[in-house]
Write a structure and sequence with these properties.
Radius of gyration: 25 Å
Bound molecules: 5'-O-[(S)-butoxy(hydroxy)phosphoryl]adenosine
Number of helices: 22
Distance between the termini: 39 Å
Helix content: 25-40%
Strand order of the largest sheet: 5-4-17-16-18-19-20
Structural class: alpha/beta
Number of strands: 31
Length: 695
């Protein structure tokens, strides 16, 4: 093993589980830790002092809670739900569900009949319990000396002002609001204001193009759009208002007219005077919101009323509007946050994700605030002005829990240890990782260098659809293995199935599914319940299918192996190959395109596009650039192909199906693994493509 020079904390002995615990086989081997020989099976034991103070202090404790959560989900979750404020308690049935397509419509409900409000639970409840003067949000601007903060009381006032503005402008319970904002405090403020009045927010990551924003406007027809004029990302000014203008003008030409565009003046990036303005539609936030009252009655909503829509990529070109409801999502994000990060009242929490993704919904805004936590929001890019910025922020705010993505870990690792070690980081206590599998070498660097071999890493596996963590370490409870998301969260029953949908036990690999619902699960795809059923519940009837491959080792630990559908994961962002392809073929000189993912040192996966040009058009550098540009314009810069490979023709079967398996091998230069190419209509295409690989 190559880890000898690292200071992984192996301790000789761990408590042995009480006998009888054997009914959950996963845990037996954790205790024994037999398999230290191979690198992948190294066990990293928690520091005994950490475990002593941890919320879940041992495998036994976990096992007790886990067992109850599976045997008595209603009791387990309603005990937790009772710690929150409900205007009216839920009905007799805590959960009703059907996950089996062969038995009828897929349906999931938790706490139905209960009346609550997530904004009330995030803010008012914490203020009433005496935490009103605690800092809710620390905001760190792109530039070093620009920052701000809001206490829970101040945050509530800001939220109420916006909520009142929305109400005054006709936004009612159930109406949709599109939010296109960068990481400024107005983003969580907007989410909470919508929640307060029962409006459904749909945050669109402010890196999406006008075209993508337009698509989302067309799909959910918002009453109002909330944005800001511009943002600084590193040294670049991004004119967000221009993107919104383009999107809204296209939407109104297509019959969806948005009456109000509330625009925050982000002064440090752009002045009012320089912002393009559409009189009658556009309103400056600063002109109207501060005039509204700082108190606003709560709209009590049913646990199953929608809270938000978040669009994500699937295997067709059309993005899916993942719909989450209120009650179950609230209980689930709060509980997963608390246990997976071993949250204590004294913690200062920073998650580097943008609120434009699910991570920012569940673990920047809702999960932490429901726990009354102090949250750091950072506007800028993590390596500006240099690669030490994250640790500068950690020291400045004394961050104790730091949650980020493997792609950032790898990129900072490349920049060298000096940028890290020049900062103290001694406040850090727990680290977290999300978005893609974290490779063991990045895990070790994160653990040893960033965390000084002191902080457990929660490698959290979950999805936009799951609402919250599904498979995750619980710090202090059991040993970790670098690169493994370890074991299921309470109430979650992951299963691995084979091609035929049979559950497989023990050491195995296959498709990752979940049996039984959990409170944070999404309830439908907006406006397309049928697609919800076919995408997630039809492949393996009786189960929720995640789209991920997974193996389970002999200790019962889970190792995620990546997507098994036509979705690629670039820097933790999910991108459908079909979306990139349809952008490419919209270029007038592109006849056909096939996109595959290839391994990328920093991004995890890179986008590799094979393109066939219209007859007679020669391939050139200029054309390559304009093909990349068309993807940036239609989706966003984060989806720009890393590589364009000119393909006079594509490998197809006789029935005309593109064989991506072969393209993947060509893209990753694994030419000795091409496999059987005899089924191709024209096998000589393969040699032609290989010959063009370096052109
Ligand atoms: C996909 C979901 C959930 C927040 C971020 C992405 C991959 C996510 C892990 C992890 C291995 C992971 C999966 C999943 N993924 N976290 N810890 N280990 N893979 O959300 O955009 O909905 O993407 O991200 O492939 O299916 P998303």
């Amino acid at each position: 093993a190559t880890n000898k020079n690292h200071q992984l904390r192996h301790v000789e002995s761990m408590n042995i589980l009480p006998s009888g615990a054997g009914n959950i086989p996963e845990l037996n081997a954790v205790i024994l830790g037999e398999s230290l020989a191979s690198e992948e099976h190294d066990l990293v034991f928690p520091n005994p002092k950490f475990s002593q103070h941890a919320l879940v202090s041992s495998p036994q404790k976990y096992l007790e809670m886990y067992t109850r959560s599976i045997e008595d989900p209603a009791g387990f979750w309603s005990d937790i739900a009772s710690e929150f404020y409900w205007k009216k308690k839920w009905g007799q049935q805590v959960c009703s569900q059907n996950l089996d397509v062969t038995k009828g419509r897929i349906n999931i409900e938790w706490f139905k009949g209960g009346l609550t409000n997530i904004c009330y639970n995030c803010l008012d409840k914490n203020i009433e319990s005496g935490n009103g003067d605690k800092i809710a949000l620390h905001w760190e601007g792109n530039e070093l000396n620009i920052d701000g903060s809001l206490t829970y009381k101040q945050l509530l006032e800001k939220v109420c002002q916006l909520a009142n503005f929305l109400k005054d402008n006709g936004v009612k319970k159930g109406d949709t609001v599109i939010v296109y904002l960068p990481m400024i405090m107005e983003l969580p403020i907007t989410m909470l204001a919508c929640a307060r009045i029962g409006a459904v927010h749909s945050v669109v990551f402010a890196g999406y193009s006008a075209e993508s924003l337009h698509q989302r406007v067309m799909d959910c027809k918002p009453k109002i759009v909330i944005t800001c004029n511009a943002v600084m990302r590193g040294k670049k000014v991004i004119n967000l208002k221009e993107i919104v203008d383009a999107a809204l003008s296209e939407s109104s030409q297509n019959g969806v007219f948005v009456a109000t565009c509330l625009t925050f003046e982000n002064e440090s990036a752009m002045k009012k005077e320089d912002t393009k303005w559409l009189k009658g539609r556009d309103v400056w936030w600063q002109d109207v919101v501060p005039k509204c009252s700082t108190t606003c009655d709560v709209e009590w909503v049913d646990a199953e009323d929608p809270l938000f829509l978040l669009y994500t990529s699937g295997s067709t070109g059309k993005p899916k509007g993942v719909l989450h409801t209120t009650g179950g999502y609230m209980i689930y994000t709060a509980t997963t946050f608390k246990y997976a990060f071993d949250y204590k009242d004294t913690d200062i929490y920073w998650c580097t994700a943008d609120c434009g993704w699910i991570t920012g919904h569940s673990y920047v805004t809702y999960g932490p605030l429901l726990n009354g936590a102090t949250v750091v929001l950072y506007e800028g890019v993590p390596n500006y002005p240099d690669a030490g910025r994250c640790w500068d922020i950690v020291d400045k705010y004394k961050v104790t829990i730091f949650y980020t993505a493997p792609t950032l870990v790898r990129s900072l690792m490349r920049d060298g240890d000096d940028y890290v070690t020049r900062y103290s980081r001694k406040s850090l206590r727990v680290l977290g990782s999300v978005g893609e599998p974290i490779n063991p070498s990045a895990w070790r660097w994160f653990f040893n260098v960033v965390g000084d071999s002191r902080c457990p890493i929660s490698d959290t596996w979950w999805q936009t659809e799951t609402g919250g963590f599904m498979i995750t370490p619980i710090p202090g409870a059991w040993p970790q293995k670098p690169g493994s998301a370890t074991l299921p969260f309470f109430g979650v029953q992951p299963v691995i199935v084979d091609e035929k949908g049979n559950e497989i036990d023990g050491e195995c690999s296959g498709y990752l599914c979940v049996k039984n619902s959990w409170p944070g699960a999404f309830r439908t795809l907006y406006g397309d319940h049928e697609r919800y059923e076919t995408t997630y519940f039809s492949a393996f009837p009786g189960y929720y299918f995640s789209g991920d491959g997974c193996s389970r080792d002999k200790d019962g630990y889970h190792w995620l192996t990546g997507r098994v559908d036509d979705v690629i994961n670039v820097s933790g962002h999910r991108i459908g190959t079909a979306e990139v392809e349809s952008a490419l073929v919209s270029h007038p000189q592109c006849a056909e395109a096939a996109v595959v993912g290839v391994e990328h040192e920093v991004k995890g996966q890179g986008i590799y596009a094979f393109v066939t040009l219209v007859d007679g058009i020669p391939y050139s550098e200029e054309l390559r650039k304009s093909l990349v540009l068309v993807v940036r314009n239609q989706i966003g810069a984060f989806a720009a192909p890393d590589r364009i490979h000119w393909a006079p023709s594509l490998p197809k079967t006789r029935s005309g199906k593109i064989m991506r398996r072969i393209l993947r091998k060509i893209a990753s230069k694994q030419l000795d693994e091409l496999g059987d190419i005899s089924t191709l209509a024209d096998p000589s295409v393969v040699d032609q493509l290989i010959a063009l690989a370096d052109s």
